[in-house]
Amino acid sequence: MIKLGTAGVIILLNTSFAWSKDLSIVVVGLFSNQAVVEINHTQRLLKVGKTSPEGVTLISANSKKAVLEIDGVRRTYQLGDHISASFSSTTAQAEVNLWPTNGMYLTVGSVNGYTVDFLVDTGASAIALNAETARRVGLDYLEAKKILIKTASGTEIGYEVNLNSVQVGDIILNDVRAMVIDGEEPQRALLGMTFLNKLEMNRTDKKLNLKKKY
After folding, report:
1. Each residue of 106-147: pLDDT tens digit?
2. Which of 63, 86, 109 finishes a domain?
3. How many CB atoms lie within 10 A of CB 197?
4. Cα gap 14→21, rounded to integer Å
5. What is the rounded CA–CA span in Å between residue 128 and residue 112?
6. Rounded to whole angstroms, what are the CA distances from 17 to 35, 40, 70?
7. Residue partners of 5: CB distance under 8 A and separation at least 6
């Protein structure tokens, strides 16, 4: 597990789209079907389905989290999350830059098209999902090969599965090996080495850069 100093999570996405300017976003208020978001130092009250003048759309919101869509990319954010986004039409490789939250690199991605909260964990040999997450993304894991997995709390029963697709930012990998632990842990899915070893990982100060190798 990679740990560094405490900071708000910031996700920079580089895609083939071009924006007229960079965006700096802070989630400052969350309500049912509404969110107060500071965009480039201007507060906006966003309602579900409405788009700000800067191009940020609120997809859903409650008192705990909001789903924002920025240039077609949807992400889930919690109160106080800071987001910086910069798009360049000249980017050749898909990449994501992450900053730590409470000493850990957290990000929102997807498995088989379903949104999943990830913890970047270089100590995990594979992507690891708990039973609830596995069922939510459509995995019939109980029919898969049974294995024993060593965890911090001891040895757990797990199941070896293949994920059709895993996406973080603009990085998409297909047919990724993963493990399902038949229980509540890990509460946040572990983005382990069956995904990370296909990427170039570089850390500069607190920033972690993930870039697809090929």
Report:
1. 998 889 888 899 999 999 999 999 999 999 999 999 999 998
2. 86
3. 12
4. 13
5. 14
6. 25, 19, 11
7. 100, 103, 206
Q: Phi and psi (nearest 5°) for 55?
A: 95, 20
CB environment 137-161: b (16+ within 10 A), e (fewer): bebebeebeeeebeeeeeebebbeb
Per the structure, the count of domains in the chain is 2
Residue at a domain's end among 62, 86, 110: 86
The residue assigned the tokens 């029919």 is 143
Let me know whether 63 and 36 are in one domain: yes
Q: What is the domain range of residue 61?
A: 19-86
Whole-model pTM? 0.58
Among residues 211, 166, 213, which one has the least CA distance to residue 191?
166
